Amino acid sequence: MGQAVRMYGPEGIYFVTARTHQGQLLLRPSERAREIIGAILARAARRYGVKLRGYVFLSNHLHLLVRARGVALSGFMQFLLSNIAKKINALLGRVGTFWQRRFSCEPVLDAEAELDRLRYILAHGVKERLVAHPGDWPGLTCLKALLGEDEVFPFYNWDWRHTKRGLEEAGRWSPRIVESERVELEPITAWASCDASTRALLARELADALAAEHAATGRPVLGARAVMREDPHRSIPLKRRGQRPRCHTSSALVRVQWLQLFAEFVAAYRAASARFRAGELDVVFPPWTLSPPGRPMIPDDLRRAGRVAPRGAGQEVVAKRVPQHVFPRTNR
Q1: According to the model, what pLDDT value does residue 315 have?
Q2: pLDDT digits (tens, 9 = 90+) for 136-190
Q3: Between the CA of residue 126 and those of 113, 134, 136, 214, what are the distances in Å?
Q4: What is the pTM (predicted TM-score) of this model?
């Protein structure tokens, strides 16, 4: 079965979700796991120029609110998910599939919808009755960064064990291969005009309101200690849900307009894909899409994939070729 076509733009805000294989609790919080995931998230954002606006890592899935340019989100997510899989698998002493399927990604089209997505992210540990307050979640969450706390994580650079002399015998978790990574958070649109102290106050009020909503229900919570003692190999059956929304917006008119634009984009992409399968290798696909498998890249594709860099007025040169794993030839 083919994968759904994604429409990226020159710049956009996206709500991203990824789930672990069979709902296993592979992301179960621990101090080491939190450090590993935080460092990978910070490096992926810095490497691909993606701006983080919100994030939470639950035991069997994650949610991100990010701002990304063009197809940078695809490379960012591939780096993030592949490195988490390798390092958390090593931490748990397991091998095999880590993620359930391709990550989901929906554009967020206005400030009100963006604030709603941030509220959804912060509410996760509470609404699942795992902790009583968003700040009690022992895993990685954006709340500390929203409150102005500086978070620095150790990134274990496994490449150094093979590329730097004298580190051949260094272990996977040796302090000799550690680099520091700092998570940087960009304010959401609704809070962009506020100063840092005001944004921290708004974040605290939002978290306290979510905790109060839960307390009013009177339902018990599992607690942070019990969460950290759970078996990471246990599976949690996924709840049956309706189809994920194509986009997030507070305006019905904006949703209709975006869906019309998306339908036109999909039609153009499928038409180009049909011509390509018929043997027309130099067919031009819609902007901000990556080449399908087996198609040689042409200059427009190189530019969109970040392999052509401008130099001077009207001059372009091919930049240093990015490894294939950074920009796979799929429309992710």
Answers
A1: 35
A2: 999 999 999 999 998 999 999 999 988 888 888 888 999 999 999 999 999 999 9
A3: 20, 6, 9, 7
A4: 0.86
pLDDT digits (tens, 9 = 90+) for 121-137: 999 889 889 999 999 99
User: Which amino acid would we find at residue 129?
Assistant: R
Distance CA 66, CA 89 (A): 26
φ, ψ (nearest 5 deg) of residue 283? -65, 145
Distance CA 46, CA 42 (A): 6
pLDDT of residue 188: 96
How much of the chain is in helix, strand and coil states, percent to nearest 5?
Answer: 40, 15, 45
Yes or no: say if 143 and 35 are a contact pair by the CB < 8 Å rule.
Answer: no
| Alpha carbon of residue 11 to chain centroid | 15
Q: How far is residue 74's CA from residue 325's CA, in Å, rounded to a whole number?
A: 11
- Kind and range of the H or E run holding 111: helix 111-122
Question: Which runs of consecutive H residues, i.e. helices, occur in 177-281?
Answer: 196-217, 224-229, 252-277
> For 202-214, how does the pLDDT look when each residue is reduced to its tens digit (9 = 90+)?
999 999 999 999 8
In whole angstroms, give the CA distance from residue 16 to residue 193: 25
Residue 192 CA neighbour count, 13 Å, CB half:
8
Amino acid at 287: P
Residues contacting residue 303 through CB under 8 Å, at least 6 positions apart: 316
Q: What does the DSSP 8-state code read for residue 250? A: S
β partners of residue 235: 24
